[in-house]
Every structure is written in structure tokens, then in C-alpha cells.
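Figure 3 (text version): C-alpha cells given as input.
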């Protein structure tokens, strides 16, 4: 018998038992819908978490610090910016020769392969005044490349900076509410940033020649962001800044600002260095390679990938658990396939005997039943994917309504990528073939003489 003949006989047999075939196909579709729904939930949750990180620009960012900085982990996680000078402990030769985070380090890191951008972390203390509002706030320097990334993807009010040297600033929504009941009304108003600056004058005093002056900088409020975009905000170590200025302006202030006499004397005695540097890679897949290169230069490096390794493992375990739960329904439906095939053997015993009597081999009989099982798996898988997609949309709609009422951010909790669709249908066919293998083998082993005598 040719493949076309066996296919024709298999499809004819399925058409003759329409109700039983439909019920069996429905059982397979419910199993596939459960499996696809569970896996799509895991994929959707993973996409929500990982996708938000990708949009925030954290996956392609590395935070670089020097071992010379006192308390390296704290320096990285707290994001204490501006320029500072740490010291190694007494007798600590392991960090004495470690490279400093200065302008030379910026050039060195910029020259690394697959590095897109390098900029220092600059956070300076400023006295902020607007009308009756006056407070000492840590201001953050923001590069122009941060536009449309992270906290700046959507502004509550206003726009992003026009240029790196523009005398403008942005506020967090919390600080804006402290200044006015309507934060949006602050857009366009002038904010005064005050700080103490040093002016070295060796002619006045050859040993410690310096002067202290107060600098008032007027900047226009151009935008209000929802949250503070400090480094690694998810780790909870970044001090709230509340005010953001262009990185060029922040570096100018940082080169002049004086926080105390000790820092002034230290800065006059030796070159300043940054407490942290941010390195942006060209693509997220280059993060680990660039991280290894920076470590070989002697720096301390931290990336969000390091913190999310455990989360990635948790998502893998979640996908496995959800897949096992969804497979239970598919295993039950496979029993329906076995039952359908066995009943079909009992009903068609004489037919099987006749086919064997006129020359059909065991392989032909086996092939007919396996084709029937695979057709049931194919249609059941396709119907199951559609059913799972529909149920997922309904659940996602209801969940988003609840999330929106609670003030949260809505999203797609279920994701059905093409690989999941193809994999679910292929898995459905495979399970159907496994379930139909026993009835097919049983039919192939029938004795043709006994089959012809069967009533």
C-alpha cells in the first residue's frame, strides 16, 4: 500500500466516527490549551520583568569602581557621586597600585571593544531654592544619551534637556509636589542652585592659597520625572536626589564645589577622581565580555546581569513547573486517544482482516492507525493553541482591569511566541503518536484468519 492509500483510509476512518473523533480531538485541545497557557504565562511574566529592565537601559550598563575607593561595594550601590578621594587601608598593598577613576580612565574604558559610551557618576550637594522652598538636595548629572531610557521614557510633565550645557533641570515628582500642589505648573520656572566653590590662589598663599565663594546658578525647570533615576535604584542603595541637571553642568559644578575643608585640601594636594563610572555597551549580549575586559584592567565592575542570575534561574524553574502542571491535562487526553484507537480496532477487526488477506502488511496497518493519531494530534494542537490564546486574553484583560484599579502598570501577562506555537503543536503530535503506538501495534499483530471470523 502506498502512503497516499494509507492516508486516505485513515482520514476515511476518522470521518466515519465523527463524534468520537471530535471528542478525542477536543480532549487533546484542552490538554494543549492548558500546557500552552501555563508556559505562555511563564514567558509573559519573564518578558514583563526582563523587558522592563531592557527598556530601562540597565542590561547594557556596567558600574565601574576602583579598589582604591574606601568601601567599594557601598560606593557602587549608594551611588555617592561627584568626585571624591578614597584611601586604601594602612599596609594594603593589594589596592595601593589600583587604577584611579579619572579622566584618563574614561578614555581607557571608551577605547574598549563593544563599548558605546562612558560617563562618570556625578552627584553633588546643592542648596535648592524656589520661592519659599529651600532645601539641601543631592543633584544628579544626567547624560543626553539617557533620553527615552529608564525613568526618562515618559515624563510626567515637560521635556528632556535641550543640550548638555543648557542651564536647565528636571525634578522628581515627589520634590515637585513639595514645591507646588500642581507640579506641572513648575515647568518654565527658574530654580536657584547654590553651592560653595573654591578658587585656588597660590600668589596669596603659596602653601594653601584658596578662596571660598558662593555660587548661585539659575536653571529653568524643563521636566518632571516620576522617580529618581539614580544608579541601580532597584537595589535600594541610591540616595534620593530629586534634582537632575545635564551632565556637562554637573561636571562643572563638581569641579568647583567644596563640601568641607578636608576635601578642599585633598583636592588641592592631588588630582580628583570619580567615585564611579558608567559604561554602556553596544548591545546587551556584549555585557559579560566588556565586564571581563574591565576587570582585567584592575577595576571593580558590577552589572544588573550579576544581580539577575538568580532571577533567571527562578524563571527557568517556574517554566518547568508550569509545563509539568499543564502536561497533566495532556496526559489525561492521551488516554482518550488510546481509548479511541482501541475502540476503532474492535469495530474494524474484520476490515483489518480483509486488508491483510488481500496483501496489506503489518507496517501498512500500523501506519494507518498512526496517521489517525497524528491527525488527531495536529487538529487538537491547533485548536488548543487557539483556545489557550483566547483564555489568556480574557484572563489578561481581567487582570489588567484589577491592576489599573490598584494604580499599577498594566502589561501582557501571557506571551505566545511562534516557537511556543510550533512546539505545542509538535508536542501534541508526538504525544498522540506515542498514545496511538500501542493500538497500532495491536492492530498490526491481528491474525487475519481470526479477524475474518470476528463478528
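Below: residues designed for each position.
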Amino acid at each position: 500500500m502506498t502512503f497516499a492509500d494509507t492516508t486516505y483510509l485513515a482520514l476515511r476512518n476518522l470521518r466515519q466516527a465523527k463524534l468520537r473523533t471530535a471528542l478525542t480531538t477536543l480532549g487533546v485541545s484542552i490538554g494543549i490549551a492548558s500546557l500552552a497557557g501555563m508556559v505562555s504565562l511563564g514567558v509573559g511574566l519573564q518578558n514583563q520583568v526582563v523587558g522592563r529592565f531592557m527598556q530601562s537601559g540597565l542590561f547594557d550598563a556596567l558600574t565601574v569602581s576602583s579598589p582604591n575607593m574606601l568601601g567599594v561595594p557601598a560606593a557602587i550601590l549608594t551611588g555617592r557621586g561627584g568626585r571624591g578621594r578614597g584611601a586604601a587601608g594602612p599596609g594594603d598593598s593589594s589596592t595601593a597600585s589600583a587604577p584611579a577613576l579619572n579622566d584618563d580612565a574614561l578614555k581607557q574604558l571608551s577605547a574598549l571593544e563593544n563599548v558605546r559610551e562612558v560617563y562618570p557618576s556625578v552627584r553633588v550637594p546643592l542648596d535648592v531654592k524656589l520661592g519659599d522652598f529651600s532645601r539641601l538636595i543631592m543633584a544628579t548629572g544626567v547624560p543626553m544619551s539617557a533620553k527615552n531610557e529608564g525613568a526618562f521614557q515618559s515624563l510626567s510633565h515637560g521635556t528632556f534637556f535641550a543640550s548638555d550645557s543648557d542651564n536647565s533641570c528636571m525634578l522628581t515628582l515627589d520634590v515637585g509636589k513639595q514645591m507646588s500642589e500642581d507640579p506641572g505648573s513648575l515647568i518654565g520656572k527658574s530654580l536657584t542652585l547654590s553651592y560653595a566653590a573654591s578658587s585656588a590662589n597660590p600668589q596669596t598663599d603659596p602653601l594653601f592659597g584658596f578662596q571660598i565663594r558662593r555660587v548661585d546658578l539659575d536653571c529653568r525647570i524643563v521636566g518632571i520625572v516620576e522617580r529618581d533615576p539614580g544608579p541601580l535604584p532597584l537595589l535600594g542603595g541610591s540616595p534620593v536626589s530629586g534634582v537632575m541637571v545635564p551632565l556637562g553642568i554637573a561636571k562643572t559644578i563638581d569641579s568647583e564645589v567644596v563640601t568641607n575643608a578636608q576635601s578642599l585640601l585633598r583636592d588641592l594636594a592631588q588630582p580628583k577622581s570619580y567615585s564611579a563610572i558608567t559604561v554602556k555597551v553596544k548591545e546587551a549580549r556584549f555585557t559579560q565580555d566588556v565586564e571581563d575586559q574591565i576587570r582585567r584592567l584592575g577595576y571593580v565592575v558590577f552589572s544588573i546581569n550579576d544581580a539577575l542570575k538568580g532571577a533567571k534561574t527562578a524563571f527557568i524553574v517556574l517554566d518547568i513547573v508550569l509545563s509539568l502542571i499543564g502536561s497533566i491535562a495532556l496526559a489525561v487526553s492521551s488516554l482518550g486517544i488510546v481509548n479511541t484507537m482501541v475502540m476503532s480496532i474492535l469495530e474494524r477487526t474484520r476490515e483489518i482482516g480483509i486488508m491483510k488477506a488481500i496483501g496489506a502488511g503489518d507496517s501498512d496497518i500500523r501506519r494507518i492507525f498512526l496517521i489517525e493519531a497524528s491527525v488527531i494530534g495536529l487538529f487538537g494542537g491547533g485548536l488548543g493553541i487557539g483556545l489557550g490564546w483566547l483564555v489568556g486574553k480574557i484572563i489578561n484583560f481581567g487582570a489588567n482591569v484589577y491592576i489599573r484599579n490598584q494604580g499599577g502598570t498594566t502589561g501582557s501577562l501571557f506571551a505566545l511566541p511562534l516557537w511556543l506555537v510550533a512546539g505545542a503543536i509538535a508536542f501534541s503530535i508526538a504525544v498522540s503518536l506515542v498514545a496511538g503506538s500501542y493500538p497500532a501495534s495491536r492492530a498490526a499483530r491481528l491474525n487475519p484468519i481470526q479477524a475474518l471470523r470476528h463478528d
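The longest helix spans residues 304-347.
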